[in-house]
Amino acid sequence: YADAARDMDILCTEYALPRVPQPGPQPSRIVITLMSEPTEFGVANPDVIQFFESYSIENDLCIWEAF
Length: 67
Hints:
The protein is of the alpha+beta class. It has one helix spanning 2-16, and strands spanning 30-35, 50-58, 61-65. It has a 3-stranded antiparallel β-sheet with strand order 1-2-3, with helices on one face. A hairpin with a 2-residue loop joins strand 2 and strand 3 (61-65).
């Protein structure tokens, strides 16, 4: 999980955050999903490892929020 957590932080900061519209409506959270392989949305697959993290946006930074 430690490697995935670092990757998810980077995805939030370098991928998702730059895509938040400026100016425009601001999301209250950014949720990053990282999985070991693609899966069909809504279909359970116990062989695929998935991680989810939630981030708030503060001062143009992704702030990790524990679920």
